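Narrative of activities, Objective 1.

The group set out to show that a structural description can be obtained from nothing but a protein's sequence at a throughput compatible with the screening campaign. Below is one input-output pair from the validation batch, recorded exactly as produced.
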Amino acid sequence: MTSQTASPPAGRPAHVPEDRVIDFDLYAFPIEGLEYQRSMRDIFLSNPADVLWTPRNGGHWIVKTHADVAKVLADTEHFSSRRIVVTDEDVAGRPPLVPLQLDPPAHAPYRALLQQALSPKAVGKLGERARALSIELIEGFRADGHCEFISQFAQHLPIAIFMEIVGLPAEDRPYLTSVSETVMRGETEAERNEAGGKLMAYGVGKVMERRANPGDDLISRIATAEVDGKPIDDFTLTGMVMLLLLGGLDTVASTLGFYAQFLATHPEHRRQLVENPDLISNANEELLRRFPIAILAREVRADVAMGGVMMKAGDMVMVPTPMDGLDEHKFAEPLRVDFNRDKPGANSTFGGGVHRCVGSMLARTELRIFLEEWLKRIPDFAIRPGSSPKVSARSVATITSLELVWDVK
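Output recorded for this entry:
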């Protein structure tokens, strides 16, 4: 399958060697079954060079090794996060997703505001709520012997916790989930832009409400905060809230789908965790390594040599987190899931450098709790025969539906 129609190719710039060109469209490449990560890796490994260039989506570089992924994410002198997606769409006039699209040191005070809400102490309390909600959700359908995992669990657990953090009403969840899905993976640019406008309008409305009547939630905190002694302006606030909504409504829910499909199709791995629950923490890291879902990007801000090529200022660089976790130079037999693997967490699944995901601790907690509580209650399950789950992807991959079945005893 492919995500959508491929974009028209751009001409090869003079500084791009011909032997580095690969015809790859992030938004429309063949995906075998649900193997999004493996399919991407297979395409990139068809060319032996470490750094590649594709003419699709305006033309951009691709780094594909652990070392180069880490370098691009850490080197803010040469790589800017002003543009974070490889696309030829017109993004002029949109508020930047703050702090993600701010380079250091400008990003720091905004990131600090978000970190306060996701401190270890705060995550500990949120983890207790996530565990209670996980149990409630699983018990709600366990006796049925089946569920549609994405809508009945994956889009409930992390999103409900997120909505508590930002103080949004639970009844808004279906609307926000639908709109954010279209923003992230809509078929056309017009659909994505329209959904983005809806999400932006929703966020701005909530900011206005909290300014007038602040509470103790995260939106209230940033709506009333000051940076450098001044209130945050509306344009910047809009970008901050957009980033919160997109991150909180999509990424953990999407990761849960890949976790569940792997366990549903690998009974030996399920049994291993059921019989040895002490392995779950390391298994969580191993599944994160094996099934990253985010494709990052950076803009070259100053000419830099990498992998035998010269990247020029203004070039775009695609930074695929799956290639980091699946680099055989970093992880032996990277396609194999090994719950006893030593240090699987040494990867870039949550990004890297100054923009490493601020919610990674909460995400890890929610994913671990899913493994603990699901396997206690439904230790054996499978994908419903005859169903056809599919991957949908742009900059973040997701499984759109996943029908699971199990024996009720």
